[in-house]
């Protein structure tokens, strides 16, 4: 089973967060655009109102003089506006000293260029004002508050905040829903790979009949698994055919040599023919071992052909067999076998696994030494001897084909441990060697997998 990544490591989580981020940024961008439009429109309205009032007061100054202008400013200041906005007026001399109006001093605004802009007042208020020069060096300023614009901006902020939160929640929910659907469809493909890895080689990903990218992924997955299954079957067929095509002529040759031996009394010829027969049997054993290794490796993870077997019974049978051989060789043999251990496996292959490890131990342990066979739940199989041991540099190399260390008793092709590891891996087990101090300890145990 594949671990599900966290939100920030998951592609679907990042897609959901990206959708959320895009919606928030889009909302913010829209708010900034609307705010700019409202601000510019409000400023234009204020400018028209201020300019109209300023132009009217300037005409009064030109037509009626300063006294009448002061009266009109006073009249305007005495009127309370129904819209709640405030007005500011200031008539000042050439030096900026107030003559009339409700501003105590001339603000930082240039009348000589008829400047207009927002000005912050000492009491914290902000007004939009325009200033201009009148005849005789007098200066006139007219200002308006922007409470309505500020209130509108505040309402816009609140509206966009609420709308942004709603859009964010909707985007998050929609993204989460879409991501869940995508994750479920990808999870089906991953589950198919998990099933194949667990041995169900015929498992296939559903949903390949659709027309989107994930359906294409499922179709490609199924096509690949079909090809893998065909390759496995082809390898098995080739192995079987190769074994038959090579073994059969060798057996015929052995039979013809045997007949030749029966028809001659020449001792030298008989010895030569007997050596030839031994070489033929040696080649057949080598061929069988190589085919067994290749076939077993091809079936790695394939549960077909496996059944619930009694490992205890297999280990006890081997213990009886090797116990008798140990007595003849002067080797102490000990067995510690837990009863009732069952495992889904190929009984013949598990027998070969344990027997190959025992054969290896008996090859290297000297007379007077000892060999241990242990079986515990897990299953854990241990074959230990007190022979010369295996150097650390060779503890992985010994599982390669044709590797034989010095000091072995008897012949062999160096394929026994390679076959033992292939059998272990075919059953989701691991095989490694440890230092037994003295000697070597071969350990078979379940593989460590990330579930």
TrEMBL record:
Record SUPFAM superfamilies: ATPase domain of HSP90 chaperone/DNA topoisomerase II/histidine kinase (SSF55874), Homodimeric domain of signal transducing histidine kinase (SSF47384)
Stretches assigned to the Histidine kinase domain: 241-450
Keyword Transmembrane in annotation: yes
Subcellular location, principal: membrane
PROSITE patterns (alphabetical): HAMP, HIS_KIN
Gene Ontology MF terms: kinase activity
Localization in the cell: Membrane
InterPro entries, alphabetized: HAMP_dom, HATPase_C_sf, HATPase_dom, His_kinase_dom, HisK_dim/P_dom, HisK_dim/P_sf, Sig_transdc_His_kin-like_C, TCS_sensor_his_kinase
Keywords: Kinase, Membrane, Phosphoprotein, Transferase, Transmembrane, Transmembrane helix, Two-component regulatory system
Superkingdom in the source lineage: Bacteria
EC number: 2.7.13.3
Signal peptide residues on this chain, from the entry's feature table: none
Matches recorded under Pfam families: HAMP (PF00672), HATPase_c (PF02518)
Catalytic activity: ATP + protein L-histidine = ADP + protein N-phospho-L-histidine
Keyword Transport found: no
TM regions (residue ranges): 12-34, 152-174
Protein known as: histidine kinase
Organism phylogeny: Bacteria, Pseudomonadati, Pseudomonadota, Alphaproteobacteria, Sphingomonadales
């Amino acid at each position: 089973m594949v671990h599900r990544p966290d939100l920030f490591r998951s592609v679907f989580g990042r897609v959901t967060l990206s959708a959320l981020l895009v919606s928030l940024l889009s909302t913010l961008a829209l708010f900034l655009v609307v705010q700019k439009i409202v601000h510019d429109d409000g400023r234009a309205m204020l400018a028209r109102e201020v300019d109209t009032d300023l132009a009217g007061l300037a005409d009064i100054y030109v037509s009626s003089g300063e006294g009448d202008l002061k009266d009109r400013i006073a009249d305007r200041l005495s009127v309370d506006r129904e819209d709640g906005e405030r007005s500011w007026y200031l008539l000042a001399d050439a030096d900026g000293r107030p003559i009339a109006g409700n501003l105590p001093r001339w603000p930082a605004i240039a009348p000589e260029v008829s400047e207009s802009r927002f000005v912050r007042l000492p009491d914290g208020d902000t007004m939009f004002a325009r200033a201009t020069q009148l005849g005789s060096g007098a200066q006139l300023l007219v200002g308006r508050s922007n409470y309505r614009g500020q209130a509108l901006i505040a309402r816009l902020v609140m509206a966009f905040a609420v709308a942004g939160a709603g859009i964010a929640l909707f985007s998050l929910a929609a993204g989460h829903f879409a991501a869940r659907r995508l994750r479920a469809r990808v999870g089906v493909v991953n589950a198919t790979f998990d099933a194949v890895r667990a041995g169900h080689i015929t498992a296939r990903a559903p949903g390949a009949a659709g027309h989107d990218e994930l359906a294409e992924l499922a179709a490609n997955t199924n096509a690949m698994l079909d090809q893998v299954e065909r390759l496995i079957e082809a390898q098995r067929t080739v192995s079987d055919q190769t074994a038959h095509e090579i073994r059969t002529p060798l057996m015929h040759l052995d039979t013809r040599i045997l007949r030749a031996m029966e028809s001659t009394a020449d001792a030298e010829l008989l010895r030569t023919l007997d050596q030839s027969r031994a070489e033929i049997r040696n080649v057949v054993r080598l061929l069988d071992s190589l085919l067994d290794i290749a076939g077993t490796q091809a079936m790695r993870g394939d549960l077909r052909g496996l059944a619930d077997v009694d490992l205890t019974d297999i280990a006890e049978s081997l213990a009886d067999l090797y116990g008798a051989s140990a007595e003849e060789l002067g080797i102490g043999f000990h067995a510690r076998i837990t009863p009732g251990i069952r495992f889904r496996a190929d009984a013949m292959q598990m027998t070969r696994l344990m027997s190959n490890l025992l054969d290896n131990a008996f090859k290297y342990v000297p007379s007077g030494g000892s060999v241990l066979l242990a079986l515990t739940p897990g299953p854990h199989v241990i074959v230990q001897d007190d022979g010369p041991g295996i150097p650390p540099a060779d503890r992985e190399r010994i599982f390669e084909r044709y590797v034989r260390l010095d000091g072995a008793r008897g012949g062999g092709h160096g394929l026994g441990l390679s076959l033992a590891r292939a059998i272990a891996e075919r059953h989701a087990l691991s095989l490694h060697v440890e230092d037994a101090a003295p000697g070597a300890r071969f350990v078979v145990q379940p593989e460590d997998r990330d579930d």
